[in-house]
Amino acid sequence: MADSLNCDLKSLSPLQLFERVTEQGEKVRALKAGKATKDEIDAAVRMLLSLKLSYKTTTGQDYQAGLPPKDLVLINNGTAKEEDEDLVDPWNVQTSNAKGVDYDKLIVRFGSSKIDTDLINRIERAIGQKPHHFLRRGIFFSHRDMDQVLDAYENKKPFYLYTGRGPSSQAMHVGHLIPFLFTKWLQEVFDVPLVIQLTDDEKYLWKDMTIEKAYEYARENAKDIIACGFDINKTFIFSDLDYLGTSAGFYKNIVKVQKHVTFNQVKGIFGFTDSDCIGKISFPAIQAAPSFSSSFPQIFNGKENIQCLIPCAIDQDPYFRMTRDVAPRIGQPKPALLHSVFFPALQGAQTKMSASDPNSSIFLTDTPKQIKTKINKHAFSGGRDTIEEHRKYGGNCDVDVSFMYLTFFLEDDDRLEQLKQAYTSGELLTGELKKVLIETMQPLVAAHQERRKQVTDEIVKQFMTPRKLAFEF
Protein backbone atom coordinates (compact mmCIF):
# COMPACT_ATOMS: atom_id res chain seq x y z
CA MET A 1 0.00 0.00 0.00
CA ALA A 2 2.78 2.43 0.97
CA ASP A 3 4.78 1.49 -2.14
CA SER A 4 1.80 2.14 -4.43
CA LEU A 5 1.23 5.50 -2.70
CA ASN A 6 4.88 6.50 -3.18
CA CYS A 7 4.69 5.44 -6.82
CA ASP A 8 1.52 7.51 -7.24
CA LEU A 9 3.14 10.57 -5.62
CA LYS A 10 6.22 10.32 -7.89
CA SER A 11 3.97 10.76 -10.91
CA LEU A 12 2.65 14.10 -9.61
CA SER A 13 4.05 17.50 -10.60
CA PRO A 14 5.36 19.74 -7.78
CA LEU A 15 2.25 21.89 -8.03
CA GLN A 16 -0.06 18.84 -7.87
CA LEU A 17 1.87 17.67 -4.80
CA PHE A 18 1.42 21.12 -3.29
CA GLU A 19 -2.35 20.84 -3.83
CA ARG A 20 -2.40 17.35 -2.26
CA VAL A 21 -0.56 18.57 0.87
CA THR A 22 -2.97 21.52 1.15
CA GLU A 23 -6.04 19.26 0.82
CA GLN A 24 -4.68 16.76 3.37
CA GLY A 25 -4.00 19.58 5.83
CA GLU A 26 -7.62 20.67 5.48
CA LYS A 27 -8.74 17.08 6.05
CA VAL A 28 -6.73 16.87 9.30
CA ARG A 29 -8.25 20.15 10.53
CA ALA A 30 -11.76 18.93 9.63
CA LEU A 31 -11.25 15.62 11.47
CA LYS A 32 -10.02 17.44 14.58
CA ALA A 33 -12.88 19.92 14.44
CA GLY A 34 -15.36 17.09 13.97
CA LYS A 35 -14.03 15.21 17.05
CA ALA A 36 -13.00 12.18 14.95
CA THR A 37 -11.42 9.15 16.63
CA LYS A 38 -7.73 9.25 17.57
CA ASP A 39 -6.95 6.48 15.04
CA GLU A 40 -8.58 8.43 12.20
CA ILE A 41 -6.72 11.62 13.09
CA ASP A 42 -3.38 9.79 13.51
CA ALA A 43 -3.79 8.12 10.08
CA ALA A 44 -4.59 11.46 8.43
CA VAL A 45 -1.58 13.12 10.13
CA ARG A 46 0.73 10.30 8.95
CA MET A 47 -0.53 10.80 5.41
CA LEU A 48 0.07 14.56 5.73
CA LEU A 49 3.66 14.04 6.90
CA SER A 50 4.28 11.58 4.06
CA LEU A 51 2.97 14.08 1.52
CA LYS A 52 5.10 16.87 2.98
CA LEU A 53 8.18 14.65 2.77
CA SER A 54 7.43 13.81 -0.88
CA TYR A 55 6.97 17.52 -1.59
CA LYS A 56 10.34 18.38 -0.03
CA THR A 57 12.08 15.52 -1.85
CA THR A 58 10.63 16.65 -5.19
CA THR A 59 11.09 20.43 -4.86
CA GLY A 60 13.90 20.83 -2.33
CA GLN A 61 11.60 23.22 -0.45
CA ASP A 62 9.62 22.86 2.77
CA TYR A 63 5.87 23.07 2.22
CA GLN A 64 4.45 26.49 3.15
CA ALA A 65 0.69 27.05 3.04
CA GLY A 66 -0.34 29.47 0.30
CA LEU A 67 3.17 29.53 -1.19
CA PRO A 68 3.34 27.29 -4.29
CA PRO A 69 6.75 26.06 -5.53
CA LYS A 70 8.51 29.16 -6.87
CA ASP A 71 10.52 27.45 -9.58
CA LEU A 72 7.37 26.30 -11.38
CA VAL A 73 4.80 29.01 -10.78
CA LEU A 74 6.10 31.95 -12.78
CA ILE A 75 3.92 34.63 -11.31
CA ASN A 76 6.57 36.85 -9.80
CA ASN A 77 7.30 40.19 -11.41
CA GLY A 78 10.78 39.92 -12.85
CA THR A 79 11.28 36.26 -11.95
CA ALA A 80 14.15 34.70 -13.88
CA LYS A 81 12.80 32.13 -16.31
CA GLU A 82 13.87 29.63 -18.92
CA GLU A 83 14.00 31.02 -22.44
CA ASP A 84 11.11 28.85 -23.64
CA GLU A 85 8.92 29.53 -20.60
CA ASP A 86 5.99 31.93 -20.62
CA LEU A 87 5.69 34.58 -17.92
CA VAL A 88 2.12 34.98 -16.67
CA ASP A 89 1.04 37.06 -13.69
CA PRO A 90 -1.83 39.50 -12.99
CA TRP A 91 0.13 42.36 -14.61
CA ASN A 92 2.38 40.74 -17.26
CA VAL A 93 1.98 38.23 -20.06
CA GLN A 94 5.13 37.39 -22.02
CA THR A 95 5.80 34.60 -24.50
CA SER A 96 8.34 34.04 -27.24
CA ASN A 97 5.92 31.85 -29.22
CA ALA A 98 4.03 33.43 -32.14
CA LYS A 99 1.10 31.10 -31.36
CA GLY A 100 0.82 32.68 -27.91
CA VAL A 101 1.05 31.19 -24.44
CA ASP A 102 1.34 27.38 -24.16
CA TYR A 103 -1.84 26.76 -22.17
CA ASP A 104 -1.26 23.05 -21.65
CA LYS A 105 2.00 23.86 -19.86
CA LEU A 106 0.25 26.60 -17.89
CA ILE A 107 -2.37 24.10 -16.65
CA VAL A 108 0.41 21.86 -15.33
CA ARG A 109 2.29 24.77 -13.80
CA PHE A 110 -0.76 26.29 -12.11
CA GLY A 111 -2.17 22.90 -11.08
CA SER A 112 -5.63 23.49 -12.56
CA SER A 113 -7.69 21.02 -14.61
CA LYS A 114 -8.28 21.03 -18.36
CA ILE A 115 -11.85 21.59 -19.55
CA ASP A 116 -12.23 18.38 -21.53
CA THR A 117 -15.00 16.93 -23.69
CA ASP A 118 -16.51 15.08 -20.72
CA LEU A 119 -16.94 18.30 -18.73
CA ILE A 120 -18.38 20.18 -21.72
CA ASN A 121 -20.85 17.32 -22.30
CA ARG A 122 -21.81 17.38 -18.64
CA ILE A 123 -22.47 21.14 -18.81
CA GLU A 124 -24.63 20.55 -21.89
CA ARG A 125 -26.67 17.89 -20.06
CA ALA A 126 -27.07 20.15 -17.01
CA ILE A 127 -28.32 23.19 -18.92
CA GLY A 128 -30.18 21.32 -21.68
CA GLN A 129 -28.62 23.32 -24.52
CA LYS A 130 -25.50 23.64 -26.65
CA PRO A 131 -22.56 25.06 -24.65
CA HIS A 132 -21.22 28.53 -25.47
CA HIS A 133 -18.74 28.66 -28.37
CA PHE A 134 -16.10 29.90 -25.88
CA LEU A 135 -16.31 26.44 -24.28
CA ARG A 136 -16.58 24.51 -27.55
CA ARG A 137 -13.50 26.23 -28.96
CA GLY A 138 -11.30 26.05 -25.87
CA ILE A 139 -11.38 29.81 -25.19
CA PHE A 140 -12.33 28.88 -21.63
CA PHE A 141 -9.89 26.00 -21.28
CA SER A 142 -9.15 25.35 -17.61
CA HIS A 143 -11.09 25.06 -14.36
CA ARG A 144 -10.99 24.45 -10.65
CA ASP A 145 -13.88 22.49 -9.09
CA MET A 146 -16.41 23.06 -11.89
CA ASP A 147 -17.57 19.49 -11.17
CA GLN A 148 -18.58 20.60 -7.66
CA VAL A 149 -20.60 23.50 -9.07
CA LEU A 150 -22.42 21.12 -11.41
CA ASP A 151 -23.04 18.72 -8.50
CA ALA A 152 -24.61 21.60 -6.56
CA TYR A 153 -26.72 22.70 -9.52
CA GLU A 154 -27.98 19.17 -10.20
CA ASN A 155 -28.90 18.84 -6.50
CA LYS A 156 -30.80 22.17 -6.59
CA LYS A 157 -28.23 23.86 -4.35
CA PRO A 158 -27.50 27.54 -5.06
CA PHE A 159 -24.26 29.08 -6.27
CA TYR A 160 -23.36 32.52 -7.57
CA LEU A 161 -21.05 34.14 -10.11
CA TYR A 162 -18.29 36.66 -9.44
CA THR A 163 -16.11 38.41 -12.01
CA GLY A 164 -14.46 41.80 -12.22
CA ARG A 165 -12.71 44.55 -14.08
CA GLY A 166 -9.74 46.74 -13.21
CA PRO A 167 -10.76 50.15 -14.60
CA SER A 168 -7.41 51.38 -15.93
CA SER A 169 -8.84 53.52 -18.76
CA GLN A 170 -12.06 55.16 -19.85
CA ALA A 171 -12.36 53.07 -23.04
CA MET A 172 -12.46 49.29 -22.91
CA HIS A 173 -11.41 47.12 -25.86
CA VAL A 174 -13.14 44.07 -27.35
CA GLY A 175 -10.87 41.71 -25.39
CA HIS A 176 -12.29 43.09 -22.14
CA LEU A 177 -15.73 41.85 -23.23
CA ILE A 178 -14.73 38.16 -23.22
CA PRO A 179 -15.29 37.37 -19.49
CA PHE A 180 -18.47 39.48 -19.44
CA LEU A 181 -20.01 37.87 -22.52
CA PHE A 182 -19.31 34.43 -21.07
CA THR A 183 -20.48 35.39 -17.56
CA LYS A 184 -23.74 36.74 -19.00
CA TRP A 185 -24.30 33.39 -20.74
CA LEU A 186 -23.54 31.48 -17.51
CA GLN A 187 -25.94 33.68 -15.57
CA GLU A 188 -28.72 33.10 -18.09
CA VAL A 189 -28.36 29.31 -18.42
CA PHE A 190 -27.94 28.65 -14.68
CA ASP A 191 -30.18 31.53 -13.48
CA VAL A 192 -27.95 32.66 -10.60
CA PRO A 193 -26.93 35.95 -8.93
CA LEU A 194 -23.86 37.79 -10.21
CA VAL A 195 -21.52 40.24 -8.48
CA ILE A 196 -19.05 42.32 -10.52
CA GLN A 197 -16.13 43.95 -8.72
CA LEU A 198 -14.59 47.15 -10.11
CA THR A 199 -11.13 47.38 -8.56
CA ASP A 200 -10.69 51.15 -8.74
CA ASP A 201 -8.65 50.95 -5.53
CA GLU A 202 -6.18 48.58 -7.22
CA LYS A 203 -5.73 50.89 -10.21
CA TYR A 204 -5.09 53.85 -7.92
CA LEU A 205 -2.43 51.84 -6.07
CA TRP A 206 -0.70 50.51 -9.20
CA LYS A 207 -1.14 53.30 -11.74
CA ASP A 208 -0.17 56.94 -11.90
CA MET A 209 -3.70 58.31 -11.49
CA THR A 210 -5.72 60.18 -8.90
CA ILE A 211 -8.26 58.37 -6.75
CA GLU A 212 -11.00 60.49 -8.37
CA LYS A 213 -9.91 59.41 -11.86
CA ALA A 214 -9.89 55.72 -10.85
CA TYR A 215 -13.44 56.07 -9.54
CA GLU A 216 -14.55 57.90 -12.70
CA TYR A 217 -13.10 55.12 -14.88
CA ALA A 218 -14.97 52.56 -12.77
CA ARG A 219 -18.32 54.22 -13.49
CA GLU A 220 -17.52 54.61 -17.20
CA ASN A 221 -16.47 50.95 -17.44
CA ALA A 222 -19.69 49.98 -15.63
CA LYS A 223 -21.62 51.46 -18.58
CA ASP A 224 -19.78 49.19 -21.02
CA ILE A 225 -20.39 46.18 -18.75
CA ILE A 226 -24.11 46.98 -18.41
CA ALA A 227 -24.30 47.37 -22.22
CA CYS A 228 -23.46 43.64 -22.50
CA GLY A 229 -27.08 43.07 -21.45
CA PHE A 230 -26.96 42.04 -17.79
CA ASP A 231 -30.24 41.73 -15.90
CA ILE A 232 -30.47 44.53 -13.32
CA ASN A 233 -32.62 42.31 -11.05
CA LYS A 234 -29.92 39.63 -10.87
CA THR A 235 -26.68 41.64 -11.00
CA PHE A 236 -24.82 43.81 -8.48
CA ILE A 237 -21.90 45.90 -9.76
CA PHE A 238 -19.73 47.55 -7.11
CA SER A 239 -16.74 49.85 -6.87
CA ASP A 240 -14.33 48.89 -4.08
CA LEU A 241 -13.94 52.56 -3.16
CA ASP A 242 -17.73 52.74 -2.66
CA TYR A 243 -18.74 49.35 -1.30
CA LEU A 244 -15.98 48.74 1.22
CA GLY A 245 -17.21 51.68 3.30
CA THR A 246 -20.79 50.41 3.44
CA SER A 247 -20.50 46.65 3.98
CA ALA A 248 -19.34 45.26 7.33
CA GLY A 249 -19.54 41.72 5.91
CA PHE A 250 -17.19 42.58 3.05
CA TYR A 251 -14.63 44.23 5.34
CA LYS A 252 -14.77 41.39 7.89
CA ASN A 253 -13.89 38.87 5.17
CA ILE A 254 -11.02 41.07 3.97
CA VAL A 255 -9.59 41.16 7.50
CA LYS A 256 -10.00 37.38 7.92
CA VAL A 257 -8.07 36.75 4.70
CA GLN A 258 -5.40 39.28 5.70
CA LYS A 259 -4.88 37.50 9.02
CA HIS A 260 -4.27 34.15 7.30
CA VAL A 261 -1.78 35.28 4.63
CA THR A 262 1.74 36.32 5.66
CA PHE A 263 3.87 39.02 4.06
CA ASN A 264 6.25 36.26 3.00
CA GLN A 265 3.43 34.45 1.21
CA VAL A 266 2.20 37.46 -0.78
CA LYS A 267 5.79 38.21 -1.76
CA GLY A 268 6.10 34.66 -3.06
CA ILE A 269 2.74 34.66 -4.83
CA PHE A 270 2.73 38.16 -6.33
CA GLY A 271 6.37 39.18 -6.41
CA PHE A 272 5.94 42.17 -4.10
CA THR A 273 9.14 43.76 -2.82
CA ASP A 274 10.04 45.73 0.29
CA SER A 275 9.68 48.96 -1.71
CA ASP A 276 6.04 48.29 -2.72
CA CYS A 277 3.44 50.38 -0.90
CA ILE A 278 1.49 48.54 1.82
CA GLY A 279 -1.71 49.07 -0.19
CA LYS A 280 -0.48 46.63 -2.82
CA ILE A 281 0.39 44.05 -0.19
CA SER A 282 -3.07 44.20 1.37
CA PHE A 283 -5.00 44.38 -1.93
CA PRO A 284 -5.16 40.62 -2.75
CA ALA A 285 -7.47 40.15 0.26
CA ILE A 286 -9.87 42.69 -1.29
CA GLN A 287 -10.04 40.71 -4.53
CA ALA A 288 -10.50 37.51 -2.50
CA ALA A 289 -13.44 38.74 -0.38
CA PRO A 290 -16.20 38.68 -3.06
CA SER A 291 -15.56 34.90 -3.31
CA PHE A 292 -17.54 34.55 -0.05
CA SER A 293 -21.31 35.03 0.03
CA SER A 294 -21.15 36.68 3.47
CA SER A 295 -19.57 39.71 1.74
CA PHE A 296 -23.04 40.39 0.30
CA PRO A 297 -25.55 39.96 3.17
CA GLN A 298 -28.17 41.99 1.28
CA ILE A 299 -28.14 39.39 -1.55
CA PHE A 300 -27.66 36.14 0.35
CA ASN A 301 -29.58 36.97 3.53
CA GLY A 302 -26.46 36.50 5.64
CA LYS A 303 -25.79 32.91 4.44
CA GLU A 304 -22.12 31.98 4.43
CA ASN A 305 -22.05 28.59 2.72
CA ILE A 306 -22.97 29.45 -0.89
CA GLN A 307 -20.27 28.48 -3.37
CA CYS A 308 -18.90 31.00 -5.82
CA LEU A 309 -17.91 30.41 -9.48
CA ILE A 310 -15.41 32.86 -10.97
CA PRO A 311 -14.99 33.20 -14.76
CA CYS A 312 -11.74 35.09 -15.44
CA ALA A 313 -8.59 35.15 -17.56
CA ILE A 314 -5.95 32.76 -16.22
CA ASP A 315 -3.62 35.60 -15.21
CA GLN A 316 -5.98 36.30 -12.28
CA ASP A 317 -5.56 32.74 -10.93
CA PRO A 318 -2.85 33.63 -8.35
CA TYR A 319 -5.40 35.71 -6.41
CA PHE A 320 -7.76 32.79 -6.22
CA ARG A 321 -5.16 30.12 -5.47
CA MET A 322 -4.45 32.22 -2.40
CA THR A 323 -8.20 32.53 -1.71
CA ARG A 324 -8.76 28.77 -2.06
CA ASP A 325 -5.95 28.10 0.40
CA VAL A 326 -7.41 30.48 2.99
CA ALA A 327 -11.12 29.63 2.54
CA PRO A 328 -11.29 26.42 4.66
CA ARG A 329 -9.31 28.09 7.44
CA ILE A 330 -11.93 30.83 7.80
CA GLY A 331 -14.88 28.44 7.44
CA GLN A 332 -15.77 29.34 3.85
CA PRO A 333 -16.24 27.17 0.74
CA LYS A 334 -13.46 27.38 -1.85
CA PRO A 335 -14.41 29.36 -4.95
CA ALA A 336 -14.51 27.43 -8.23
CA LEU A 337 -12.94 28.93 -11.35
CA LEU A 338 -13.24 28.91 -15.12
CA HIS A 339 -10.13 30.28 -16.88
CA SER A 340 -10.00 31.88 -20.31
CA VAL A 341 -7.08 32.25 -22.69
CA PHE A 342 -5.64 35.72 -23.33
CA PHE A 343 -7.08 37.89 -26.06
CA PRO A 344 -4.25 38.62 -28.52
CA ALA A 345 -3.06 42.09 -29.48
CA LEU A 346 -3.54 43.02 -33.12
CA GLN A 347 0.23 42.90 -33.59
CA GLY A 348 0.34 39.23 -32.59
CA ALA A 349 -0.12 36.85 -29.66
CA GLN A 350 3.40 37.55 -28.38
CA THR A 351 2.52 41.13 -27.45
CA LYS A 352 0.11 42.43 -24.83
CA MET A 353 -2.68 44.84 -25.56
CA SER A 354 -2.29 48.23 -23.97
CA ALA A 355 -4.88 50.93 -23.36
CA SER A 356 -2.09 53.44 -24.03
CA ASP A 357 -1.55 52.01 -27.55
CA PRO A 358 -4.76 52.57 -29.54
CA ASN A 359 -3.49 50.31 -32.34
CA SER A 360 -2.99 47.28 -30.08
CA SER A 361 -6.68 46.38 -30.16
CA ILE A 362 -10.13 47.34 -31.35
CA PHE A 363 -11.68 49.65 -28.76
CA LEU A 364 -15.38 49.85 -28.00
CA THR A 365 -15.28 53.53 -28.98
CA ASP A 366 -13.80 52.90 -32.46
CA THR A 367 -15.69 54.00 -35.58
CA PRO A 368 -16.29 51.57 -38.50
CA LYS A 369 -13.50 53.35 -40.39
CA GLN A 370 -11.05 53.03 -37.49
CA ILE A 371 -11.85 49.32 -37.16
CA LYS A 372 -11.22 48.78 -40.88
CA THR A 373 -7.94 50.73 -40.83
CA LYS A 374 -6.64 48.99 -37.69
CA ILE A 375 -7.35 45.49 -39.00
CA ASN A 376 -5.95 46.15 -42.48
CA LYS A 377 -2.86 47.95 -41.20
CA HIS A 378 -2.00 46.25 -37.89
CA ALA A 379 -3.53 42.74 -37.70
CA PHE A 380 -0.64 40.27 -37.74
CA SER A 381 -0.91 37.94 -40.72
CA GLY A 382 -0.25 34.24 -41.02
CA GLY A 383 -0.14 34.59 -44.78
CA ARG A 384 2.82 34.18 -47.13
CA ASP A 385 5.03 36.94 -48.52
CA THR A 386 3.55 36.77 -52.01
CA ILE A 387 0.19 35.77 -53.48
CA GLU A 388 1.89 32.98 -55.45
CA GLU A 389 3.47 31.49 -52.31
CA HIS A 390 0.21 31.85 -50.40
CA ARG A 391 -1.76 30.03 -53.13
CA LYS A 392 0.87 27.27 -53.14
CA TYR A 393 1.56 26.80 -49.42
CA GLY A 394 -1.48 28.37 -47.69
CA GLY A 395 -1.72 30.52 -44.54
CA ASN A 396 -1.11 29.68 -40.89
CA CYS A 397 -4.26 30.11 -38.76
CA ASP A 398 -2.29 29.40 -35.58
CA VAL A 399 -0.52 32.78 -35.75
CA ASP A 400 -2.97 34.82 -37.84
CA VAL A 401 -4.61 37.42 -35.58
CA SER A 402 -7.63 37.95 -37.87
CA PHE A 403 -8.45 34.24 -37.58
CA MET A 404 -7.84 34.33 -33.81
CA TYR A 405 -10.30 37.24 -33.45
CA LEU A 406 -12.88 35.37 -35.55
CA THR A 407 -12.51 32.40 -33.18
CA PHE A 408 -13.74 34.70 -30.40
CA PHE A 409 -16.45 36.63 -32.25
CA LEU A 410 -17.75 34.57 -35.19
CA GLU A 411 -20.39 32.32 -33.63
CA ASP A 412 -21.07 30.12 -36.68
CA ASP A 413 -18.91 26.97 -36.28
CA ASP A 414 -19.38 25.84 -39.89
CA ARG A 415 -18.43 29.24 -41.30
CA LEU A 416 -15.32 29.38 -39.09
CA GLU A 417 -14.24 25.91 -40.24
CA GLN A 418 -14.77 26.88 -43.90
CA LEU A 419 -12.57 29.96 -43.42
CA LYS A 420 -9.88 27.85 -41.74
CA GLN A 421 -9.82 25.32 -44.56
CA ALA A 422 -9.82 28.01 -47.26
CA TYR A 423 -7.04 30.03 -45.61
CA THR A 424 -4.90 26.97 -44.82
CA SER A 425 -5.21 25.72 -48.40
CA GLY A 426 -4.33 29.09 -49.91
CA GLU A 427 -7.72 29.58 -51.50
CA LEU A 428 -8.46 32.53 -49.21
CA LEU A 429 -5.98 35.42 -49.12
CA THR A 430 -5.01 37.47 -46.03
CA GLY A 431 -6.83 40.56 -47.32
CA GLU A 432 -9.99 38.50 -47.81
CA LEU A 433 -9.76 37.05 -44.29
CA LYS A 434 -9.28 40.55 -42.88
CA LYS A 435 -12.38 41.65 -44.80
CA VAL A 436 -14.42 38.93 -43.05
CA LEU A 437 -13.13 40.13 -39.67
CA ILE A 438 -13.94 43.76 -40.49
CA GLU A 439 -17.49 42.76 -41.49
CA THR A 440 -17.82 40.83 -38.21
CA MET A 441 -16.41 43.50 -35.87
CA GLN A 442 -18.00 46.65 -37.31
CA PRO A 443 -21.64 45.69 -36.55
CA LEU A 444 -20.66 44.10 -33.21
CA VAL A 445 -18.98 47.28 -31.96
CA ALA A 446 -21.69 49.55 -33.42
CA ALA A 447 -24.43 47.52 -31.67
CA HIS A 448 -22.49 47.78 -28.38
CA GLN A 449 -22.19 51.55 -28.79
CA GLU A 450 -25.95 51.84 -29.36
CA ARG A 451 -26.71 49.84 -26.20
CA ARG A 452 -24.19 51.90 -24.21
CA LYS A 453 -25.93 55.13 -25.24
CA GLN A 454 -29.05 53.86 -23.46
CA VAL A 455 -27.14 53.36 -20.17
CA THR A 456 -27.81 56.50 -18.13
CA ASP A 457 -26.10 57.58 -14.91
CA GLU A 458 -29.34 56.63 -13.13
CA ILE A 459 -29.15 53.05 -14.49
CA VAL A 460 -25.52 52.81 -13.35
CA LYS A 461 -26.58 54.00 -9.89
CA GLN A 462 -29.31 51.30 -9.73
CA PHE A 463 -26.86 48.53 -10.68
CA MET A 464 -24.34 49.81 -8.11
CA THR A 465 -26.75 50.23 -5.19
CA PRO A 466 -26.43 47.43 -2.57
CA ARG A 467 -29.82 45.69 -2.57
CA LYS A 468 -31.68 42.40 -2.58
CA LEU A 469 -31.68 40.67 -5.97
CA ALA A 470 -34.44 38.51 -7.51
CA PHE A 471 -33.48 35.39 -5.54
CA GLU A 472 -34.56 33.92 -2.21
CA PHE A 473 -31.93 32.59 0.20
Number of E strands:
9
Q: What Rg, in angstroms, do the CA atoms define?
A: 23 Å
Strand order of the largest sheet: 3-4-9-8-5-6-7
Low-confidence stretches: 71-83
CATH C-level of the largest domain: Alpha Beta
Find the CATH superfamily of the largest domain.
Answer: HUPs
CATH architecture of the largest domain: 3-Layer(aba) Sandwich
Total separate domains = 3
Instruction: Identify the overall geometry.
Output: globular
Quaternary structure annotation: single chain
Secondary structure category: alpha/beta
Strand count, sense and closure of the main sheet?
7 strands, mixed
Topology:
Elements: H1 2-10, H2 14-33, H3 38-59, E1 87-88, E2 93-94, H4 103-110, E3 113-114, H5 117-127, H6 133-136, E4 140-144, H7 146-154, E5 159-165, H8 177-190, E6 194-198, H9 200-206, H10 211-226, E7 235-239, H11 240-243, H12 248-259, H13 263-270, H14 278-288, H15 297-300, E8 307-313, H16 317-326, E9 336-340, H17 368-378, H18 387-393, H19 401-409, H20 413-425, H21 430-453, H22 457-463
Parallel strand pairs: 5-6, 5-8, 6-7, 8-9
Antiparallel strand pairs: 1-2, 3-4, 4-9
Helix pairs in contact: 2-3, 5-7, 9-10, 12-14, 14-16, 17-21, 19-21
Domain WHEP-TRS: 13-69
InterPro entries: aa-tRNA-synth_I_CS (IPR001412), aa-tRNA-synth_Ic (IPR002305), Rossmann-like_a/b/a_fold (IPR014729), Trp-tRNA-ligase (IPR002306), uS15_NS1_RNA-bd_sf (IPR009068), WHEP-TRS_dom (IPR000738)
Protein name: Tryptophan--tRNA ligase, cytoplasmic
